[in-house]
What we know:
Blueprint: E1 2-6, H1 16-25, E2 30-33, H2 35-42, H3 47-61, E3 64-69, H4 80-99, E4 104-107, H5 117-139, E5 144-148, H6 170-180, E6 185-190, H7 191-197, H8 201-208, E7 212-216, H9 237-246, E8 252-255, H10 265-283
Parallel strand pairs: 1-2, 1-8, 2-3, 3-4, 4-5, 5-6, 6-7
Helix pairs in contact: 1-3, 2-4, 3-4, 4-5, 5-6, 8-9
Amino acid sequence: xxxGATTHIILDEVPLPDVLRMMADTGFDGGELALRHLxxxxxxxxxxxxxxxxRATAEELGMRIPQVHLSVAKMGSLDEEQxxxxxxxxxxEIELSALAGIEIGVLHPVGGFPATLAEYRRVQQIRIDSxxxxxxxxxxxxxxxAIENTYDPHGDxxxxxxxxxxxATIIDLHQVIDAVDADNFGICIDSGHTNLFGLPxxxxxxxxxxxxxxxxxxxxxxAIDEHIEPTRGTxxxxxxxxxxxxxxxxxxxxxxxxxxxxxxxEVQLMRMEHVVAMTRWLIGx
Length: 285
């Protein structure tokens, strides 16, 4: 197991190659390409060149960047035009991510909010078909797709099954993976989402088992998605780490926490050093 962070841990005005250098200098072994940075690469004058600079910088620093957070796609949408646009954008994102040396794209299992059981079943099938297409796209670039757990409730959302949000249980994720039946499909466990749903983190990891291929690690107090550092909220980290060890996880322990807003860069760097030290203590490395 090694320590990483999503690249939005530093404020936006820092160029992406410098973000990697700062992360390496403060002790991170790797990380995840943040969605905001992926979009910056896509919007560059020469996206391919930007992706290759990212890859070269990571290799130069010895930083392992196995995963990227892809744009949220309407994976169960009944709006065919919206779904088609989402999949086209995903294809471009995966293409550039692969050029950047990234192997795993993280996606939320979101879809529509059907009003009837028949509509709900249609959404289920569309979600399966959409993830099947995502896995096909990823496979063409030697990449994998990780489906991320969600949580209930989500504002005032309601559907044919009430305030239930698909993907909050690990069983939901397994059902999609079983239905798609693709070799390059696994699970990303988001620790903050498990806590908001009331699912103990250790149990989430144990239910995921060998299908775990990506992590989003952060804490909260069980009410809102705070994205604070581990041990600052109410998650049982002792059991969570024990479960990771039980399932033999050797991949990234990726902190999905934001920057120290409003603080000088020197303060942000000191905070990052503290986070690395605390995380090393937490996971025992």
